[in-house]
Amino acid sequence: xxxxxxxxxxxxxxxxxxxxxxxxxxxxxxxxxxxxxxxxxxxxxxxxxxxxxxxxxxxxxxxxxxxxxxxxxxxxxxxxxxxxxxxxxxxxxxxxxxxxxxxxxxxxxxxxxxxxxxxxxxxxxxxxxxxxxxxxxxxxxxxxxxxxxxx
Length: 151
Hints:
GO terms for molecular function: metal ion binding. This is Succinate dehydrogenase. The protein is an all-alpha fold. Helix content is 62%, strand content 0%. The protein contains 4 helices and no strands. The longest helix has 29 residues, at 25-53.
C-alpha cells in the first residue's frame, strides 16, 4: 500500500471558502484602513486637545461642557465623523480577523452578523445622540446648564 504525500511547497487549496471572480474589495478595504487611520489620528488628537489641553482639563468636562460643544455644528460633525470612521475602521479590522481565523462557514457567518449588528446599533444610537442632543433640557437644575441656556 503506497501513500502519497504532497510536496511541501505545493499551493494549498481551501475547500471551505468559495471564491467568486476577482474583485478589489480587499484592496479597497486595505486602502481605507490606511487612510481612515491617518484621519482618525488627526480627529482624535484634535478631540483630546480641545477637551483636555485647550480647556480647563478633565475636571471641566461635564454636561454643560458637552452641551456647549455640541451646540456648534462643527463639533457635531467632528464627533460624528470620528464615530463613523472609528466604527467602520474597527469593523473592517474585526471582519478581517474573522475571515482569517474562523474555519467554518457557519461560524464565520454568525460572527459577521453579530459584528454588523453591533456596528449598526452603535452607529445609529451614536448618530441619534449627537443630532438629537438637547443642551437645554426642561426641568434641569440651572447650575448644570451651559451659560447660553435660559433657566
